[in-house]
Each structure stands twice: as C-alpha cells, then as structure tokens.
Amino acid sequence: MKAIWRSTLAWLLVSGWAPLMWAGGSGLNVVVVVNQNSANSVELGNYYCEKRQVPPQNLLRINWNGQIVAWNDSDFNTYLLNPLLSMVSSRQLTNQIDYVVLSMDIPYRVFQTGDVTTSGANSTTAVVYYGFKPDGPGTVSGYASCNLPDASSNSYASSEDIFRTSPPLGAPTNSFLTMMITSTTLAQAKAVIDHGVLSDATFPAQPVVLAKSYDIFRNVRFVSFDNPIFNTRVTGGYNLTRTISDSPYGLTNLLGYETGLARFSILPNAFVPGAFADSLTSLAGMIFEPNDQTNLLAFLTAGATGSYGTVLEPCNYLEKFPSPQTYFYQSRGFSLAECCYQGVTNPFQGLLVGEPLAAPFERRGTGSWLNLTTNALLTGLTNLSLAMEASDPTHPLEQVDLFVDGQWWRTATNLPPAPGNLLDVTINGHTMGYQVPVGASIKDVASGITTLINKPANTNATKVLAFAYGDRIELQSIDRTKLGEQVPVSVSNSLGSATALTTSISASLPEFLDTVAFGLGSFLVLGSPDTTTLLTTNSFLQCVVTKVNSSRVTIGVTNTTGTLTVTDMGTQLFNLINANVALQGQDGVTAQDFVINYTPPPDAFQFNLVPNTVGWNAAQIRVALTGSPEFRIQGSLSGRLDDNLSDLRPRNHLYVTAGVTNLVLTFGLDTTLLANGYHSLSAVAYEGTHIHTQTPLSQTVQVQNDSLSAAFALNNTGTNIDLGGVLQFTVVANTNNVSSIQLFSTGGLINSVLNQTSASFSVAAASLGAGLHPFYALVTTSAGTQYRTQTIWARIANPAPPFPLTLTAPPATLSWPAVAGQNYDVLTTTDLSVPFQLAATFTASNSPATWTDPNPVSSQRFYRVQTSN
Question: Which pairs from 287-291 meet CB under 8 Å and 24+ separation?
Fold first, then answer.
C-alpha cells in the first residue's frame, strides 16, 4: 500500500413471477449474467434466480472462453457490456433493471488498450456501474494507478437518494448497481447468496466493528469513524462501535468489520447474515492470482455477505475505499449494493463481491388483493383492487407499479408530495413553516427545508445548521453553551391548501444528542524545499498547548548539535508531548498517529493531537505549532482541536416522506393487451422514502378474450431431470391457424416452430444448467392473437454419485451411507422389464440410513435408492 502525501492535511476527511421484495430492489430489478462456458457460473446464476425469484427473461448468457482474472476493454464490451445493453433494451426491461449480478468465472479486471500511462485498469463491476475511468497522465508515488482522476468521481456516493433517480453522472451508458458473486468453490459462492437472503428484515443486533489498526498507511479511515457512529446513535437500533485492533481473528457474531491490514486471519462463521466487511489494502481485489496480501474472499469465507477490494495498487486514498458511512446507509434499510456504491466516492478500481439485495434493516409493509383469487378468470377491461399498509407511519407507501409476468407494465398510482401541504419545524422554540411547491420531489422538499433552516434569521434564533442528504436533513447545534438535551425539536404536518396530506416530516429524537467523539487536530511538518538531510544548528520546533482553563504548556525541540533531521525532530517532539505530565490529565492532550514521509525531499512528518476528554468543549484546547524558517507547518485552521467539528456538535435528523400509511387502490387492467392464458400479476408498492422498500402482492390469473388455447405438457417422468438428460415438451393448439409456437425458459426463448398446429421440443438439460427452471409456451396465430400456457417447473440436477446399497432379510432392510437432511426415494419392482415404482420417500437423519420394507416379501423383489429433490 503506497501512502499518498498531499499539500494539505493528508488523509483527514473524505470529500464530500411472484417475487419476494427487498429494500430498494428485488429480483424484478436484477439481470443475472452467467458465463455459458462455465458450468459453475450457470449453476450459480440459476441458484440466484431461484433464491431471489428473478424472472426468467432477466438472465443473460455470455460465452467467454478466456481467463477469469482480466480482459481488455474490447473483449469486455463485446462479450458483456454490449450484450447486456442489447438485452435490456430488446426485452423491454429498461424501466425496471437497476442491478447486475455477475455469476462467477467472469473476469474481474478490465484493462484499457493504449498508452498504459493514461489508461490503466478498472474492476469489471465498476466499469459496468459507470464506465471505464482512465488513470490520466502522470504518476503519483511512481504509480499511474495512484492517480485520482476527476472523471472517476461517483456522484451517487453519499447521496442517500433513490438510485434510479440519481445514477452516477458521466456514465456513458445505462448505469447498474453491479456486484460479482464468486468464491473458490461453487458451494461457498452459494453460501454468499444464502447469507444475503437470510438477512432480509432481520434487524440484527450484532455489532459492526470499525477497527483502527497500527498500520499507519492502512488505518487512515479511522478519522471517518465518528460520523456514522453518531448517525446510527441518532437513528437507534444499530450497534456500530470503534476499536483499536491489528487482527479480526477470534471475533465472532459480527454484522460488519472495517479495518486496514495487509495480512490477517479470521475465524469461520465470524459474521452473521447481511454482514459487509473489508480491509483497506492494495490488492484485496486480486482474488484469483498470486497475492501476498489477504484478499476479500477471506471475509466471504468467514460468512460475510459482501466485501470490497481493489484490483491493482490504488494508494491509500480514502475516496477509493468504502467509507464507514456505508454502515449508516445499511442501518437506514438500503440494500447492500446501494450501501456500497453510496459509500465509495471513486470506485473505479474496486471490485464489489457479494449479494446485492441483502437488506437486514428493510421495513416491509403488508397487503392483500381485495378482488383477485388464484387463477381468477379475467376478460376485457377489468378493475383490480388492493389494500396495503405501511410498516409504520414514518415509512408510508408512495407508489404502486404493476408487473405482468415479471415485466413492468404501468404505474398504478403515485402519491408524491402534495403542493400546498404545510410542514412546520420547531427548534429551540422557534417555528419555521414550509409549504410544498408544485412539482416537488421528496429530495426537493428536504432541500427546501434545509435552505429555510439555514436562513440567517432562523439560524440566529435556533443556533442550528442544516445539511441535506437526499430525504434526510442533518441538524447540528452550533451553540456550545447548550447540551444536546437542551435543544428541543418538534414537527407538525398539515393539509394546507392541498386536497390530500401526502407529505410528512419527522424527527429522529425529541431533542438533540451529544457526541461521544474526541476532538482532533492534524499537523503536517515539512522541511523547506532547500532543506538538506541535516537541519541547521539551533533549528527548532515548538508546540504551545493552551488548555481550556487558559493555562499553557510549552514543549520544544532544538537541533543544538546540528545532527538532527526533520523526522528526528518530529519524533522527539511527539514523544515529549506524550511524556509531559501536565498534558496527561483529563484537560490535556495525547499525540497520536505519527507518520513519516519516506520519500524525500523534503523530509516530512505528520501527527494528530487528541483531547483526553470527549466532546466539543474539550476540543477548545488551542495548539500553536511553530518552528524555525526551515520548516513549513500546516495545522488546525481554527487553532483548536476541532478539525472534526461536525462530529462534535450535538446532532439530530429530520426525514421527509411522501405517501400514506393505509392505501386502498382500484385500477384498471385492459386484458385485451395480454395473451390469452396464464399470467402472473404483481402489484409492487414502494415506501415513500429514498429507501424505496418494496411490498408486493402477487397472484396467478387466467385471461380469456377469445377461444384460442393450447395444451402444454412435460413428457418426462417426474420433474427432476439429470443434467445429462433431455426434457421433452409437447404443445398442441386448438386451432389450425398457427403462425408460431415458442418455448421459453430461463434466459428467454429456447426454441420455436413456424406454421404448425402442434410442436414437440427437446431441450438438453445441460444447456440450461443445474437449477430450478420454469417452462412455458406461447402460441401465436396468423391473426396476431396469442395464448400463453401455464408454467411447468423442472429441476435439473447434477447426478448424485453412486453409493453402495446393502440388503438384509428377513424382513427386507436396506442400508446405505447417507447425508443427514437429504431426501431419498426408495423404488421397487418384481420384474426388471417394467419400471421401478416409488415405495417410500424420507429424509435421512443420520448415516447410514436404513429402510425396512413394510410389505412381506413373498417373491423375488428388486430395490433401488436414489436422492430426491
């Protein structure tokens, strides 16, 4: 990990189907990309589609025969990006796809052909997210990859916004929240999916640990720890803590872990479902190539649901790694992919691996159809009615979309902020009223209220500043004479001149909350450009600390012998500060985080001063660091230890929402626009916050507007097919006027015939891969009318390896080595010329498993045992 030195204070702060539903997205919103040349990729993609109930048309098959580490931009575009964009457009998914899942055995690094000093390499997930970002000319610390090009900035970061309404600026094509799911084995990759699915809406109480290691080049995120800790304390219900640690080994039961280490060990099952963990180091994203650093797969193997690592030397820019604020976004209910892309300001070199829809803190609503039963027969123009209820009044329902067969159909209703609604905010007894303007979004309202609070007349009265983040308004008290509990906040919402009250504002707490953070002052000392290795005789550095009670402590270092360097003097000064008894009390300071610049000229060092007591008042200690002309000194702009001022002020949050708590809705559906036959209808309600949690209502119906119909059958025995087998389907229409019969399954169209009344289709199971697959047929007449058959589900499975079977008698008892929890079928026959018949199915509880034939065996009988799905 190469350290980056800047002309200002280095490293201080970061700049600015019937699907189940998840926060900010569901299987409806995902494209799964599988590499058809990898059986593992195909099986994993199928597994994800099953677990997240991704519609079959949302799976894309690519054919990549190259390595799984890297590809050039031309191959990336040819094999992945262009097919993806074409698929989304041609299958009419533009209105619904926000996520892309890359299913293992797809390269994770993209390098751009051309001049390597200006191009470089990006991660595949980042390039799908917002395009390739060249390094640009020049180098930092000898590495072009250590540049931080302006074009790599991610405008979605820190937005707390709905991704669809605020995708990253500068993306050359559609933008997608992209994550790769992979591991060293297929089983471990499937476990990542399982952990994500298990995490939804569980509200885990386990801790997230922000660890400051002793690695001075990799622990640099610690200056950002206090902000999310403060935010999660305000919102409540999330256990975020900081610690000093050089290893996660021995820790268990974690919801997350953020550190900065090159190498470490971690226990299996260290994490609970939904956990995100990463380490700020150079090469954690180099997952399948020689690497002397611990890569991100270590976290996933230990049970984490997601992780992040860079795919080449990035240097230790905070902007290139997940901010600790990522965990605050998770506490709000955002999905894992939303949290990660909001948490990285410049993600172009970072590989995101994990299950993107995991949302442990989502808040689901409830609901029911009022007039729709299973397989209800619909004709012509029909009205559909439903009733939905939000999880609580602060998370109302704003919008309802209708999806037909997994595809967005229309918006049934939308309840944005109503023009004329009145929102009042009272802080410190001063009331400010805001009227919702015409056409305002939730974000517009939050921004407008922020502007109102920050008007000089209001700030003078309240002594509070406001900062807008999407639908959230962060309030900071600037009155140091008052504790947080002495700054009350109240809100009210009223109809105003509107016809409906759909806009609300709420406060996290009835009063402000005080900080638990320590103040911080950062100091950078450089030798002047003409400084030689040794400083001149009698050159000096002096630090004067003025305590809150105005008493002064002076510490100085003088180069009396002429034998000291800049860093020698810095080391002495640092040690003298910590050895001074007058600074060791509660009203003193501690010097921390001493860092030497090992790339002269000029020599330089940096350190932080931290008050020994938490809080804003303790940070009023003043520090003056001066020196002889050989030194250039940069320090706290205020002269106090409050570089982290926003973390020290008492804080509260306001949240703007839109919609209603109870939603009863009737809307029309013109079934003449649908094919006759079977369809899945899904009404999806969205939470009226920027979390946009989905609440679904789904039902299978039949449409019949003319006499056209068709019979559809799977001709195989049973619906469990070996991977080496062939599925046989027949379709028979009830008319001779047929122009085409098409067969669909996972990935879309499988096969078709023209101008036939009936069709037989053979589908090689291996072409679809192991997993659960839906099949349906679409019959089209020459007049353009269509019939969609019912869906038949079939599971394609890898053949189980043979196992020995032992028979003892009487009575006839079978015994075989079994896997606990596995289902087994016992089949029997008395004549090998006729098929075996199922005699029993049961679940093994231990090994070996045993089964005794309950029927007396009076003649020759044959037995077979096989695994059952």
Answer: 287/108, 287/182, 287/351, 287/353, 288/68, 288/69, 288/108, 289/69
